[in-house]
Amino acid sequence: MHQFTRAALVGSTIFLVAACAKSETPATDTTTAAMAPAPAPAPAALALADVAGKWQFSNVPTSGTDTSSTDYVLTATADTSGWMLEFPSGVKVPLTVHPGGDSIHMVAGPFPSQRRKNVKVRTESTLRLQDGKLVGTTTARYDTKGADSVLQLRGTGTRIP
Fold this sequence. Notes:
This protein has an eight-stranded antiparallel β-barrel with strand order 1-2-3-4-5-6-7-8. The chain is α+β, with helices and mostly antiparallel strands.
């Protein structure tokens, strides 16, 4: 019986070792994930009240030989009504304003172009508040036929005290 007990003990030990053995998978390297910087937080939502007031703007074409600026004053309010562009020529253009996230999308026109004589234009602009300035891009679509009917501009606005 002594040999039977020994055989049973060896057999059960082998069974336990086999049952407890796991198929080894390589350990996941957590040092890379732990060392990687956390993603930057999403920009804070821009409230229209943050930009309410008057802003002196200068828009410059992003390409082409004409690098002259189109200047205007943007009147911004704490809600979507009453937004206005006013050009040095005296032309006042109401804006449709759509805030979203960290940006403000503005649509204007058609109105008399300040860059092209006797031509109407529609504009769409997207602005963000950066370092106390409103910065962004404008796409101008002129009521003409041809390759130069669209103009891209980059704009910067500073608050008028």
